[in-house]
Specification:
5-stranded mixed barrel; alpha+beta; 12% strand; two-stranded antiparallel sheet
């Protein structure tokens, strides 16, 4: 280890290391030489993230002491090692016990249960609803944002459980389970729900022929009496099959048959059902719920995703018959928020790894963090990361304000609801789609090491496309926004709160508004559909710029405007990749990097 310290001594430091390397060559071929010597462990995930800290403060988050403690816990070496083990040891399926009886159990590594307990018992699913006061859902958003940085796969059942809570609170027949979902207890035992202090809820919606078009589903439900049904069909994606129960869609058969004619009838709208692993009325295993196989996925490996057959599976109707899509739509919006938070968190983790590496790695006579081109790239990534974080947390505030009824009037609450509905779709589309390119640039900062599975960047990169695909891929989201065009003026009004603060942004928003007005005249025309992605990209940039100008760090806001928003005269000459959007001056670069470095706990 070089004994010289300080930037001025780097040349002498390099000479010293080179001399040591020559001396050690014969004796130790594994001398680290110029590699980074700073391990990424024992960091404060909360305090290391200025945009998150600022967001919690300005958006009314609560329990900041808990957030700080959680940030410390989530950055400790032991929990990060458990996360790595959970990802490297994929779950396996046992369909039968040793006597040949069906059990349909997914077995997880012990490390998976460690991180599930860490997430659930610290409130990553239930905190917002357990407290349900102004700011509590902002706090919960910060928790799941940090938990995603630990390991994103296990967050899937946590996210689904959180999204299901309003359904369980609202509808008769399932309300008795709400307290167990909110309990912040993790109980992985495969036993009936009434024997557990805490339960998790999964979703089983997608079918082979339907994909995102859940109205094309063919699963049927035959009444058994007392609000119970027998379900027959196939679910192509059922994530986390060891959840205690699953919300699913099926078409109620009017004549009690399970014929293909009923399944394919477009006049029969799907209904929502709760399918538990154990039948609550008998305490016996729900034998009609059969797991056929686990998916072999690119990423998300700690989480089991499965294909399921319903062969007379017991299910309980939730909500009104034929109103299944209406019942689950709020869940979809909630999971879209968590996709946005998850991708923003993943970007943050990748950035922190790149910053930590650059601060310890020496090349060509200087630390990477002091190399001008690397500094400009890292600063640009910091700007992007802070924009995504504040964007995601701003949407969490919109959810918080309408769900906890903390706005000043019923009209304001409805406005916040519409702002959340349209804004979270725009945000989910943009933030999740930006992530793969972002993680790649952070991976490249580590050079060849970034591409090796021994380092965490490879895991982050494999995971990075998922949130853009889950809960509505790019085209689905963009078309949803066109169909929900009536709410676009509410989003524009929110963006325009910064009118007059910057001429570049004023001109850009005016152009976006003109496009929105043109699209709203015929939102589903061929021209509108062809241009949907372009419109959503521009809306997202305008939204992020507006949020940063109102609530973000002033230097970050200026850097974002200079690098992402065209000038009044037109688009400035800028590159198409990170590090090429703008050339930041040294003072601004130094300020951006300094505020974003990891904070280590001794």
């Amino acid at each position: 280890v070089c004994s010289y310290a300080g930037k001025d001594d780097e040349d002498q430091c390099v000479k010293s290391i080179e001399s040591d390397a020559k001396e050690n060559f014969v004796h130790d071929r594994h001398a680290l030489g110029l590699q980074s010597k700073y391990a990424f462990e024992n960091i404060n995930v909360f305090k290391s993230d200025p945009a998150l800290v600022d967001s919690v403060k300005v958006f009314g988050g609560t329990h900041t002491l808990h957030l700080n403690e959680f940030g410390i816990k989530s950055g400790q070496d032991a929990i990060m090692s458990a996360a790595e083990l959970a990802e490297k040891n994929k779950p396996t399926l046992r369909q039968f016990d040793n006597y040949g009886r069906r059990i349909d159990v997914a077995d997880y590594h012990d490390a998976y249960h460690t991180i599930m307990k860490h997430g659930l018992e610290n409130g990553c699913a239930g905190h917002g609803f357990k407290h349900n006061t102004t700011g509590s859902h902002v706090t919960r958003a910060a928790l799941i944002y940090m938990e995603n940085q630990l390991e994103p796969g296990h967050c899937c059942p946590i996210v689904m459980t959180a999204a299901a809570i309003p359904v369980f609170q609202r509808y008769d027949g399932v309300q008795q389970y709400a307290d167990q979902i909110i309990s912040q207890k993790y109980d992985p035992r495969n036993v009936p729900m009434d024997q557990k202090a805490g339960i998790t809820i999964g979703m089983s919606m997608t079918e082979k022929q339907g994909g995102s078009d859940v109205r094309a589903n063919t699963t049927t439900a035959v009444p058994l009496g007392n609000n119970a049904y027998s379900l027959t069909g196939h679910k192509w994606f059922t994530s986390a099959p060891m959840c205690d129960a699953f919300l699913t869609l099926a078409k109620i058969s009017p004549d009690g048959s399970t014929s293909s004619a009923v399944a394919a009838d477009p006049k029969v709208a799907p209904s929502c059902f709760l399918v538990p692993r154990w039948v609550p009325t008998t305490g016996e295993r729900n034998t009609g719920f059969q797991v056929m196989r686990l998916k072999d996925k690119l990423g998300d490996r700690a989480n089991a995703s499965s294909e399921v057959e319903y062969r007379g599976a017991w299910g309980q109707l939730v909500g009104e018959p034929g109103k299944g899509v209406k019942t689950i739509i709020e869940m979809v919006q909630s999971t879209r928020l968590d996709c946005t938070l998850g991708s923003a968190g993943a970007a943050r983790r990748a950035l922190q790894l790149a910053l930590n590496h650059a601060n310890g790695r020496k090349a060509f006579g200087h630390k990477l963090i002091h190399q001008p081109l690397m500094r400009n790239l890292l600063a640009d990534l910091c700007v992007e990361s802070e924009a995504h974080t504040m964007n995601a947390m701003y949407m969490a505030r919109a959810f918080d304000r309408y769900y906890t009824a903390s706005s000043s009037s019923a009209e304001d609450i409805e406005t916040e609801k519409e702002l959340f509905r349209i804004g979270v779709s725009v945000s989910k589309y943009f933030v999740t789609k930006r992530l793969p390119g972002f993680v790649y640039e952070c991976m490249e900062a580590l050079g060849g090491n970034g591409y090796v599975e021994d380092f965490p960047m490879a895991r982050l990169f494999r995971q990075s496309p998922l949130n853009a695909i889950w809960e509505g891929s790019g085209n689905v989201i963009a078309l949803d926004i066109l169909r929900g065009h009536a709410a676009l003026p509410i989003l524009l009004k929110d963006i325009q709160q910064v009118r007059g603060s910057d001429s570049r942004l004023d001109a850009y928003v005016a152009q976006v508004e003109a496009t929105v007005n043109a699209v709203r005249k015929d939102p589903l025309s061929l021209e509108s559909q062809r241009g949907a992605r372009n419109l959503v990209d521009r809306l997202a940039l305008a939204l992020q710029a507006s949020i940063l100008v109102r609530y973000g760090d002033k230097q970050i806001a200026e850097a974002f405007l200079a690098s992402r928003i065209p000038s009044v005269e037109g688009s400035a000459a800028r590159g198409a990749n990170f590090g090429g959007y703008a050339v930041y001056n040294e003072a601004l670069t130094d300020s951006i990097l300094s505020r974003n470095m990891p904070v280590f706990e001794v």
